[in-house]
Design brief:
Blueprint (H helix, E strand, L loop, with lengths): L1 H20 L3 E6 L20 E8 L4 E10 L6 E3 L1 E6 L12 E2 L8 E3 L3 E4 L3 E5 L4 E8 L8 E9 L12 E7 L1 E7 L4 E7 L1 H4 L11 H10 L7 E7 L14 H10 L4 E7 L2 H4 L14 H17 L3 E5 L12 H16 L6 E3 L1 H4 L1 E2 L2 E5 L13 H15 L8
Parallel strand pairs: 14-15, 14-16, 16-17, 17-18
Antiparallel strand pairs: 1-13, 2-10, 2-11, 3-8, 3-9, 3-13, 4-7, 5-6, 5-10, 11-12, 19-20
Helix pairs in contact: 3-9, 4-6, 6-7
Length: 403
């Protein structure tokens, strides 16, 4: 009996020690999968074949190790990866000499990602800083049309994953297979900014990390009382709450793109303007939604967040009078939704009143003229800064201490 007790004690001690050294992962960057898009603006327009694709990713949280999440979740066919690497970028966006590191998959340089599945790289001992950018290069030995988030990437012939400088790269909008960057390190609070193009940062200066989530991350990091936050941008331009637009609808993707982010504690929801916008395509007129349906969608997301012990912060819908798909009926819906959000703020972990912050003085239905790109729908860098400061006033009041 004494031997059994001793064995049990040793087992418990070993289990405790293993638990102490097991890494804790936190979301640090995101580009939710959309679908294969060969015909969008600036697109490559064809599948990859015997080519290396270099994608730029960011890191919103410091850590000692990282791993990358690759997404084949929206494809019904397997995807072959011949090799992959990661490298540091300097302030000018060039690869730092000597920083290229090979990535592995269960110890192998290559991988086959099953249909409808995500796939992690092996963890890599690579200390990273919050705000740092990395270049990820992936070699596709055969024909591949990944259903990933389209973005500006560099495409070159052959396997150039080991090179710091790519030979004769072609710049094009094409799938970036990395859907998330995760880091391990000290405990963090993770905020997922979930929404459409206004969250993704359409209209911001390209490559300058000027979306409102990017600017919010920097504001929080600069304050000693709120430096604990890692802000992950899960916005998809053209996304909608209730119908598939660009990418799966918000109700379909919420669990994967928000609630499943490692370490997530809060979600900041800003979505619905694309549902409200006037539908010009006769074939999609049956997709028109009411304000009550949008509110019901918010209730669904709130219930699902609470079921996972994740707190939901909600942002009011921005002014959009003058936008291409704006009309009087849509404005009534927007006002109704915003009134409901304000009246029910006690149900949420916070309310970010983007609507008030972005109103043109004297014209509350119009987005501030000095803070938009001219389409009356998307903010410019200054507008996203205004949004970030508004959000920081809410998020920054949440204690960094975990309860």
């Amino acid at each position: 009996m004494r031997k059994l007790r001793s064995a049990a004690a040793l087992f418990l001690l070993a289990s405790s020690a293993a638990a102490q050294v097991a890494p804790t992962w936190f979301g640090a960057w995101s580009a939710p999968p959309i679908a294969y898009e060969p015909r969008i603006r600036d697109a490559l327009g064809r599948p990859f074949k015997d080519e290396t694709v270099r994608q730029i990713v960011g890191v919103a949280s410091s850590g000692g190790r990282l791993r990358l999440r690759l997404s084949n979740e929206l494809s019904d066919t397997v995807l072959r990866i011949g090799a992959a690497s990661v490298a540091r970028l300097d302030a000018g966006g060039a690869v730092v000499p000597g920083s290229v590191r090979a990535l592995a998959f269960a110890g192998s340089k290559s991988a086959t990602i099953p249909a409808n599945a995500p796939f992690y790289t092996d963890p890599l001992d690579l200390p990273v800083r919050a705000g740092e950018r990395l270049a990820v290069s992936i070699y596709y030995p055969g024909e591949a049309a990944p259903p990933a988030h389209a973005q500006m990437v560099d495409v070159v012939t052959g396997d150039q994953t080991a090179r710091a400088q790519l030979a004769s790269p072609l710049r094009a909008r094409a799938p970036g297979l990395v859907s998330a960057v995760e880091v391990s390190g000290s405990p963090r609070r993770v905020l997922v900014a979930f929404g459409d193009s206004i969250t993704e940062g359409a209209g911001a200066s390209p490559g300058e990390q000027m979306s409102y989530p990017d600017q919010l991350a920097r504001l929080l990091a600069a304050r000693p009382s709120s430096h604990c936050w890692s802000v992950v941008n899960a916005g998809i331009s053209g996304n909608r709450l209730l119908h598939d637009g660009r990418g799966p609808n918000a109700l379909a993707r919420f669990d994967r793109d928000a609630l499943a982010v490692p370490g997530v504690t809060h979600v900041l929801l800003l979505e619905g303007i694309n549902d409200i916008g006037k539908i010009s395509d006769p074939a999609k007129r049956d997709q028109a939604v009411t304000a009550d349906q949008i509110i019901a969608a918010y209730r669904q997301l709130l219930a699902r967040a609470h079921a996972r012990q994740v707190k939901l912060i909600v942002g009011t819908l921005l002014p959009y009078e003058g936008a291409a798909y704006a009309d009087a009926e849509g404005e009534v819906k927007r006002a109704t939704v915003n009134r409901w959000i304000r009246a029910n703020r006690s149900q949420f972990a916070g309310l970010v009143d983007f609507d008030i912050a972005m109103q043109e003085p004297g014209k509350p239905k119009v987005m501030r003229l000095d803070s938009q790109i001219g389409d009356h729908l998307h903010p410019n860098d200054q507008g996203y800064a205004r949004m970030a400061h508004t959000a920081a006033g809410v998020v920054g009041k949440i204690s960094c201490a975990r309860r």
